[in-house]
Amino acid sequence: MARPVRFKDTIFQTATRLFGERGLAGTGIREIAKQAGVSEAAMYRHWKGKKDLAEAIFVQGMSELNEKLQLDVPTSGPAGEAVHATVRILFEAYDTHPEVVHYLLLNQHDLWRSIDHDQPNPVGFWFDLLRARADEFEVCPELSGDIIGPITLGMILRPGIAAAYRRIPMPLAQHAKGVSLAICRVLGVEWEQGGSQLK
């Protein structure tokens, strides 16, 4: 008889937490099973191995985060509002589930090279957003369109790394406006939000 679904969910959640805390290389099947309170055999009933489990978590997490961005980031109106919505959503995700965001976006691992890059994900969402709004930007001429995406993405992700080392006050979402203003400055767009205008 197959294990109830709740065992699979427990394994999934435990693995996500451990991958976020320790990275893929630092997390073994035995430790996942132990902390999930299941046997290793129970894990192999659902996934072929650690890589299969890691890919399943990665794809599902990316899809869920991308779906939130698709629903809540405005597609019209000031570009600064779209920037701020993106930053806010990602920072709130970090505050709610830091281990998930660490695993998906902050830890360095090989899953980015192994997944289908047509799979919806937050990084692709950000790059697509910048391409769609490029006519509204006044970017420094020394910055090509190819490099502006990675630079501004770094401005979103690096605060999460600083938060992990307790270098900045939490919650991270309280910094969303300031980071958004900094990104708008790089992009050369005006944004008025809450009485603050960037020119």
Describe this structure in words.
The chain has 199 residues and is mostly helical. The model is unreliable at 1-5 and 195-199 (pLDDT under 50). Strand 1 and strand 2 form a beta hairpin. It has a two-stranded antiparallel sheet. It has one domain: Tetracycline Repressor, domain 2, CATH 1.10.357.10. It has 10 helices and 2 strands; from the N terminus they run ααααααααααββ.
Radius of gyration: 19 Å
> Mean pLDDT, nearest integer?
87
CATH architecture: Orthogonal Bundle
Number of domains: 1
Q: Roughly what fraction of the amino acids lie in strands? A: under 5%
Parts with pLDDT < 50 across at least 5 consecutive residues: 1-5, 195-199
Overall 3D shape: elongated
Share of residues in helices: 55-70%
Secondary structure layout plus pairing:
Blueprint: H1 5-22, H2 29-36, H3 40-44, H4 50-72, H5 79-96, H6 98-106, H7 111-114, H8 122-132, H9 145-164, H10 176-187, E1 191-193, E2 196-198
Antiparallel strand pairs: 1-2
Helix pairs in contact: 1-2, 1-6, 4-5, 5-6, 5-10, 6-9, 8-9, 9-10
Defining traits:
64% helix, single chain, disordered C terminus, elongated, Tetracycline Repressor, domain 2, 10 helices, 199 residues, two-stranded antiparallel sheet, mainly alpha
Summarize the structure.
The protein has 199 residues and is mainly α.
